[in-house]
Amino acid sequence: MTEPRRDGDRARLAAGYAGLAGFCALEAVFRHRGDAASLMPTNDDRGTTALIIATYALTAELPLVARRLPGRPLPRPATAVGLAAQAAGTAIRAWSMHTLGGSYTRTLRTEGDAQALVDTGPYRWVRHPGYAGSLLTWTGFAMSTRSAPVLALTTAMLGLAYARRITAEEQLLRRDLPGYAAYCGRTRRLVPLLW
Prior knowledge:
The chain is mainly alpha-helical.
């Protein structure tokens, strides 16, 4: 490997990890204290919070491991596209966190009668814009590394983790949040008009 390529690799990784740091910093900005910040799962959580945290940790390590794997890198524009996707995903996540306010929690839980259905902001188009933003952020990070194995593994692992999370969350909200079933009838899960 030539020296310029190493510098380019380092710069890509640094930019991608800076984007992930911004993603993580959202927690400090938007997370309310108390139950909303608790990592103590309820039975309704079904281990999905721990699964997502573990998947984040594994995906963050993938580029460091995959650098040693043989293979042709993705085209150069993948870095710029990935970083743009990462920024867009973080913005969508921040918008959804801000819209939920005190109802935004780390683990799956409801606030009983105090919780109201939120169908404004990004929630008017999809039921899980925060998850859509997370997936876009982490996929963008993976793409910015220009590693096809990192991109494939990140997409697969987080896709499976969030599919499990969405299933558990929708069961909880259909049971405990009045109006949620009707809301599901008029919105998509992650991608407006598609899914």
